[in-house]
């Protein structure tokens, strides 16, 4: 095992290059927190894209977040040079690159960071002082271990938690604002609230059918006296509107109407959450919200949610997991998930009064 302990005994300032996707950012949290635990006195600074920055910024144990700005006026080489200059002035002792891109290593090298740790992907090994081989899926298993394994290989941590559970903090002031917004929307916080995220940015192969989300929401509102909140990105607003149009009952559509922090606070206010395999699924799990996650084209063993009170609903299909964005055949993996299955899973979560922690998600199959 390569060790850098002689170089990184008591660092003053560490840089972490965060993953770019919401789900990846969430499941990187156990590894970032492991850095904090290993170096409790160091400044821990995360470099992140704007759309994931609040995930790290809201954590009390993260010292600072530097945005990799994506505003139009900063596009191109000038944006990158400005960032490199800012990083160079920070005088970091080391950089841990959880993002796999060549540019992440190029950035750390240009910023004169003396220790640069990352996987040797995208031909960037020569830019790293500690290039590490990418572990095989059979070694890593869940994606969360991919980030922890990086730290283990260099001796920063001595072992990897076999059941890592990302924990996401939400600032108290944002929680208070969320409660106020729910009251403005006419949502009674004393009545069960169900959050639903019907989208998935990766592609339609990960999305359960809109008409089934509509039927599920109607049944839960009618039979369990739930209030339903639909969530989604601005691009998913038409999908949420379509589902609401199909419904008999009146749900609250918040798709495209929340910031990431607002979504975190509103989701935390829910008594249960239903989602396809997506960033919001991981957010809900990390917030400790009882969760039903729908899986079809992807593998819950590799990218499933980590947390408490999680039920995974899927239907066996010989072609799943295919990991494709769109289904080239008949979409059987999602079509075979019945509304009854999801209804029963959600209902059981709503009825549970205890919040015991379970070692792995429960998998319900047809």
Structure, briefly:
The protein has 366 residues and is of the alpha/beta class. It has 14 helices and 13 strands.
Description:
With 366 residues, the chain is of the alpha/beta class. The protein folds into two domains: 13-153, Glycogen Phosphorylase B (Rossmann fold); 173-365, Rossmann fold (3-Layer(aba) Sandwich). The protein is 38% helix and 15% strand. The chain has 14 helices and 13 strands. The protein has a seven-stranded parallel β-sheet with strand order 9-8-7-10-11-12-13, with helices on both faces. It is globular and about 60 Å long. The N and C termini lie far apart (44 Å).
**How big is the Rg?**
21 Å
**Number of distinct beta strands:** 13
Low-confidence stretches: 353-363
The name of the CATH superfamily of the largest domain reads: Glycogen Phosphorylase B
Sheet having the most strands = 7 strands, parallel
CATH architecture of the largest domain: 3-Layer(aba) Sandwich
Shape: globular
CATH class of the largest domain: Alpha Beta
Which strand order spans the largest sheet, edge to edge or round the barrel? Answer: 9-8-7-10-11-12-13
* Number of H/I helices: 14
């Amino acid at each position: 095992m390569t060790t850098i302990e002689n170089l990184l005994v008591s660092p003053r300032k560490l840089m972490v290059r965060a993953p770019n996707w919401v789900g990846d950012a969430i499941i990187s949290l156990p590894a970032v927190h492991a850095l904090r635990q290993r170096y409790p006195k160091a400044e821990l600074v995360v470099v992140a894209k704007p759309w994931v920055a609040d995930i790290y910024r809201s954590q009390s144990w993260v010292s600072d977040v530097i945005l990799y700005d994506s505003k139009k006026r900063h596009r191109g080489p000038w944006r990158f040079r400005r960032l490199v200059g800012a990083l160079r002035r920070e005088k970091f002792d080391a950089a841990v690159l959880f993002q796999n891109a060549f540019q992440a290593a190029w950035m750390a090298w240009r910023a004169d960071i003396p220790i640069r740790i990352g996987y040797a992907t995208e031909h960037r090994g020569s830019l790293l002082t500690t290039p590490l081989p990418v572990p095989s899926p059979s070694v890593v298993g869940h994606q969360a271990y991919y980030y922890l394994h990086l730290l283990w290989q260099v001796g920063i941590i001595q072992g990897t938690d076999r059941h890592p559970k990302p924990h996401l903090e939400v600032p108290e002031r944002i929680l208070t604002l969320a409660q106020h917004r729910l009251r403005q929307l006419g949502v009674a916080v004393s009545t069960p609230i169900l959050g639903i995220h019907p989208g998935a940015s990766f592609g339609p192969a990960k999305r359960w059918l809109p008409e089934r989300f509509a039927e599920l929401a109607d049944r839960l509102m009618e039979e369990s006296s739930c209030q339903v909140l639909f969530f989604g990105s601005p691009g998913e607003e038409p999908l949420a509107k379509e589902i609401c149009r199909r419904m008999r009952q009146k749900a609250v559509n918040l798709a495209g109407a929340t910031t990431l922090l607002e979504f975190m606070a509103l989701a935390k206010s829910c008594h249960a959450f239903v989602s396809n395999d997506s960033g919001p699924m991981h957010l809900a799990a990390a917030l400790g919200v009882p969760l039903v996650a729908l899986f079809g084209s992807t593998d819950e063993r590799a990218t499933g949610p980590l947390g408490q009170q999680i039920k995974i609903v899927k239907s066996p299909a010989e072609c799943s997991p295919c990991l494709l964005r769109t289904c080239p055949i008949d979409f059987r993996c999602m079509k075979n998930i019945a509304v009854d299955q999801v209804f029963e899973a959600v209902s059981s979560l709503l009825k549970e009064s205890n919040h015991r922690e379970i070692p792995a998600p429960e998998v319900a199959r047809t």
